């Protein structure tokens, strides 16, 4: 009986071992094939390190920094004085406008890191436009600043070394399309009522303290006699400039017909000026209008300066947005290529 029980126990142990032990292969090719076909976890979602991997795969040796014009060589006395006071010789390169286009990862904190690097180098950002592109995880920054070529190139390379930054392009010397948007709120009452409209709150309704003097028949008899005597006493004296200016400012308020005619004339003049610059009026209120205009920076500044005489209440401008032009092959180059290249004039017959 004990022999039977021992045999049954050995059979159960052998069956358990056969279930737990992995199959043994004579070659490793079958094992590799099985590992390759094994299910794997899904790939991770793109994050800020994706830009770092991209730049690592496309690593290239950057060109040297542009040469900076340095002043003449210094004497020993000047060099010692420079070392003592820690004043390095300034560069003679001019400060000019630079346009940087940054392609960054769409995540929080990128803008603060980019602006922090530029602020640490002493750059004042003239304009900054940030918006998400057609790709969900990619944003585009357009930065306009002024500086020397060498210093700006150093800042550009430092920005490109940031982890969430894919690339930084310098569009300073590139043929680009530049556009900027302007919204300006202009008074249609004229510049005389500008200060009064600024006190009127959001509606820009003029709030002028009335300086209108009542007519003579509204005064009492004693007041009229006193004013007449005072005028007779001082009639020989020249009037002071302050008195003349005060009398000029104490004008009677406009009648409704005069105000309507003034608004119509100013509105027509603003419409004519806007049509010349390709702008349009997008809002009309009782005392002001809002004009929208898009174009180059210099054109926007010129239009804004021409609107100021009408009475500029508010203005808002977007930063500069740029897009590089696509080069087009000219017809002359295509004709030369079709003819087989440029013909050497020395090989032609005389005449």
Broad shape:
extended
Structural class: alpha+beta
Q: How would you state the average pLDDT, rounded?
A: 76
Radius of gyration: 40 Å
Strand portion: 15-25%
CATH superfamily of one domain: ACT domain
Low-confidence stretches: 244-251
N- and C-termini, Cα separation: 127 Å
Question: If you consult CATH, what is the topology of one domain?
Answer: Alpha-Beta Plaits
How many DSSP-defined strands?
9
Q: What would you say the CATH architecture of one domain is?
A: 2-Layer Sandwich
Bin the helical content: 40-55%
Please summarize the sheet with the most strands.
Answer: 5 strands, antiparallel
Q: How do the helices and strands follow one another from N- to C-terminus?
A: HHHHEHEEHEEHHHHEEHEEH
Total count of helical runs of at least 4 residues: 12
The CATH class of one domain is Alpha Beta
Q: Summary?
A:
The chain is an alpha+beta fold and about 350 residues long.
Describe it.
Belongs to the acetolactate synthase small subunit family. Pathway: Amino-acid biosynthesis; L-valine biosynthesis; L-valine from pyruvate: step 1/4; Amino-acid biosynthesis; L-isoleucine biosynthesis; L-isoleucine from 2-oxobutanoate: step 1/4. One of its GO terms (cellular component) is acetolactate synthase complex. Strand 6 and strand 7 form a beta hairpin. About 2% of the residues have low confidence. Helix content is 40%, strand content 20%. The strands form two sheets. Strands 5, 6, 7, 8 and 9 form a five-stranded antiparallel sheet that branches. Strands 2-3-1-4 form a four-stranded antiparallel sheet. Among the domains are: 105 residues, Alpha-Beta Plaits (2-Layer Sandwich), CATH 3.30.70; 101 residues, Alpha-Beta Plaits, CATH 3.30.70.1150. The protein is extended and about 135 Å long. The longest helix is centred in the C-terminal third of the chain and has 21 residues.
């Amino acid at each position: 009986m004990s022999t039977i029980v021992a045999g049954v126990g050995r059979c159960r142990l052998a069956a358990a071992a056969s279930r737990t032990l992995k199959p043994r292969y004579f070659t490793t090719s079958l094992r590799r094939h099985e590992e390759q076909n094994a299910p794997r976890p899904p790939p991770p979602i793109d994050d800020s390190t994706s830009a770092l991997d991209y730049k690592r795969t496309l690593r290239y040796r950057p060109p040297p920094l542009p040469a900076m014009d340095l002043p003449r060589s210094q004497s020993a006395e000047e060099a010692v004085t420079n070392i003592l006071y820690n004043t390095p010789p300034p560069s003679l390169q001019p400060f000019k406008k630079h346009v940087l286009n940054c392609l960054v990862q769409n995540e929080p904190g990128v803008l603060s890191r980019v602006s922090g690097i530029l602020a640490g180098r002493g750059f004042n950002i003239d304009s900054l436009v940030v918006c998400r592109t057609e790709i969900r995880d990619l944003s585009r920054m357009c930065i306009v600043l002024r500086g020397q070529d060498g210093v700006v190139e150093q800042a550009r390379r430092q920005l490109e070394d940031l982890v969430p930054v894919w690339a930084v392009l310098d569009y300073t010397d590139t043929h680009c399309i530049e556009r900027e948007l302007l919204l300006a709120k202009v008074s249609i009452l004229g510049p005389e009522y500008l200060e009064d409209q600024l006190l009127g709150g959001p509606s820009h309704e003029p709030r002028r303290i009335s300086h209108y003097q009542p007519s003579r028949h509204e005064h009492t008899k004693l007041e009229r006699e006193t004013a007449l005597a005072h005028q007779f006493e001082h009639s020989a004296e020249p009037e002071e400039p302050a008195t003349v200016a005060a009398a000029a400012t104490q004008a009677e308020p406009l009648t409704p017909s005069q105000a309507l005619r003034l608004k119509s004339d100013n509105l027509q003049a603003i419409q004519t000026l806007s049509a010349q610059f390709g702008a349009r009026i997008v809002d009309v209120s009782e005392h002001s209008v809002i004009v929208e205009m898009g174009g180059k920076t210099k054109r926007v500044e010129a239009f804004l300066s021409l609107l100021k005489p009408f009475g500029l209440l508010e203005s808002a401008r977007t930063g500069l947005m740029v897009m590089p032009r696509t080069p087009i092959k000219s017809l002359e180059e295509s004709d030369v290529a079709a003819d087989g290249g440029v013909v050497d004039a020395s090989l032609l017959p005389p005449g």
